[in-house]
Amino acid sequence: MADGFSRRKFLAGSSAALGALAAGGSASALLAACGSSGTNSTAGGKVGSTKADAGISTATPKRGGNLVVATEAEDNGFNPTIASWDVTGLMYGAAIFDTLVTIDVNGKPQPFLAQSVTPNADATQFTITLRPGVKFHDGTAVDAAAVVQSLMANVQSPQNGPALLNVAGVTAGGPMTVLVSCKEPWPAFPTYLSGAIGTVMAPAMLVDPKAGNLKPVGSGPFVFKEWVPNDHLTVVRNPNYWQQGKPYLDSVTFKPIPDHQSRANALKAGDVDIMHTDDSQDVQQFTANSSFVSITDSNNSATEREVHFYMINTAKPPFDDLRVRQALAHATDQSRIHSIIDVVNTPITSPFSSNSPYYTAVDYPTYDLAKAKALLTAYQNDKGTLPTFQLSTVTDAKDLQRTTLVQAMWKEAGINCQVQQVEQSQYIVQALLGNYDVREWRQFAASDPDENYVWWSPLTASPIGKLALNFARNKDPQIGAMLEKGRTSLNQADRVSAYQEIGKRFAADVPYIWLDQTVWLVTAKPNVENFNNPTLPDGSPALKMTAGFINVGQIWRS
Fold first, then answer.
1. What SS3 class is residue 284?
2. CB–CB of 181/169 below 8 Å?
3. CA distance readout (Å), 246 to 210, 222, 556
4. Which residues pair with 172 in a beta bridge?
5. Cα–Cα distances in angstroms (integers) from residue 377 to residues 40, 372, 384, in the given order
6. Higher per-residue pLDDT: 8 or 198
7. Does the chain have fewer CB atoms within 10 Å around its N or its C terminus?
8. Cβ-based neighbour number of residue 116 at 10 Å
9. What backbone phi and psi angles, to 5 degrees, belong to 105?
10. Tens digits of per-residue pLDDT, 97-120?
11. For residues 429 and 469, what is the distance between their CA atoms, to the nearest angstrom?
12. How far is the CA of 364 from the CAs of 213, 326, 327, 347, in angstroms?
């Protein structure tokens, strides 16, 4: 399941993975019933459960050892201005780099590598004060000049720059102070510093960005050692990390295993120590298995949850015709997909969680085969033909099963499409360039809805063949106006009404065929301690696992 820049959030993903994004799949009270009550005296939490204390340890941390982490995909590098940075990339990044900001347990941005981020009265300028004495892995100082260079690399990036269209300037206000000025009020800006955009790269890494993409230099808890694409990434402990005492592990090895069943088998066989997945059957299986410690993000209400859908290239015929998009929605039986494949997920008609203040009921075109056929007949009468196209997903057996099921549903309405599978990093590149018809996707987890500005704005919907972060290339001026209202208003009630209106416009435009709200599972051997207990520098709790993202900096092995 591609996450195209996020399995949390590629651009502004909080400390839980951007975005996020792409295909494939990517909670429910049902999960609580699946848990075992068995405990592990050393793990500091419930084994085989998804209760609040699972993955949290109060024991004294133990130093040493290696951890093998199985991820759902491989990324295409370490420089977030040019690499895809899906959930795997975000986990790689959190091991090697620090972000200026992180997200706390309540979904609010808090200083991390920065000592403080302070807005002026109208949120048009932000003063970033850096922590003294922090060094990159090559020994150079993390100072204002380095942070300005890293932020400007994002501003000037064809990939990330569109997310920073509101930035008017980035300058050093002193040796350890950075000033970011905005063209208009932007109260949500600090949240953007919690993901790829706020990832601080060493100046040496930016001399040659392409070379730096292969050999990262950050200030994070681990130092890059070796990367063999599609096999493993190994990082080793940073002995000079600024958070005293961390990390606890000597090394971490990340192993990309795209097929969810192979990933699960690797954990059961002991070949890996911990893994993430959004496969419903795996969620059910592992939360009921007392041999593993399991957590899900099903009860995380601090942020918007990642949602799963089919994304339509609205700039491309026949999908520039609303009738075709509506027909696809009416031909999609959510309940059937839910009952057969995504049994633990929650069906949706909006990108916002039902318990979110930004949620409102919408008139989304739900399953109605007769309406789908009537819309297609009208289209055929006008165009002389029925639509044919490619329906794509990533290289995972469960994603193929789901997409083949959808293909069969659409055929019942008279729609002919061919299914294709694409490796995830290339899948994301294709979405950026608009080289697709309809594809499975996951995205839109956010601690602030403004984080989705870049994915939804008409300003970021470039023509096919040019990089566009509005992957669906949906150019609704009403959505554009509401995004501006939500971005610039300092009044929360105005922001709420703006995003509720956006939910309604998606139901009218149908750039997305909504499926469900994804449930992510992270499951580990019992001797993997503290994997769901991220903290702020002062020790207070940070955002727990969301959309499959964990930070290995706080983990140890018993």
1. helix
2. yes
3. 30, 10, 10
4. 178
5. 61, 9, 10
6. 198
7. C
8. 13
9. -65, -20
10. 999 999 999 999 999 999 999 999
11. 11
12. 42, 9, 12, 12
- Contacts of residue 502, Cβ cutoff 8 Å, sequence gap at least 6: 456, 479, 482, 483, 486
Q: Which whole-number Å values give the CA distances from 139 to 98, 221, 223, 387, 412, in the listed order? A: 15, 14, 12, 58, 63
Rounded to whole angstroms, the Cα distance separating 439 from 316 reads 13
The pLDDT of residue 462: 93
User: CA 390, CA 198: separation in Å to the nearest integer?
Assistant: 36
- Residue 104, strand partner residues: 542
In DSSP notation, 425-481 reads HHHHHHHHHT--SEEEEEE---SSGGGGHHHH-GGG-PPTTS--SSTT----HHHHH
SS3 string of 319-360? CCCHHHHHHHHHCCCHHHHHHHCCCCCEECCCCCCCCCCCCC
Q: Is 157:140 a contact under the CB 8 Å cutoff?
A: no
Q: Are 394 and 73 in contact (CB under 8 A)?
A: yes
Cβ pair 350, 503 in contact under 8 A: yes
438-443 and 388-394: which strand pairing?
A: parallel
Task: Copy the structure tokens of residue 199.
Answer: 């990832």
For residues 420-432, give the mean pLDDT: 91
Element (H, E) at 33: helix 30-34
pTM: predicted TM-score of the whole model, two decimal places: 0.86
Amino acid at 75: D
Query: Which residues are CB-neighbours of 261 under 8 A, at least 6 positions away?
Result: 397, 398
Cα angle 127-129-133, degrees, rounded to a multiple of 5? 165
Decide: 146 and 218 in contact? Cβ < 8 Å. no
d(CA 531, CA 134): 25
Report the share of the chain in percent with pLDDT over 90: 85
Q: Give Cα separations from 507 to 14, 361, 363 (angstroms).
A: 27, 10, 6
Can you say how many angstroms the Cα of residue 411 is from the centroid of all Cα atoms in its chain?
31
Identity of residue 263: R
In DSSP notation, 54-79 reads TT---SPP----EEEEEES---S-S-
Name the one residue in this structure whose structure tokens are 């992957």.
471
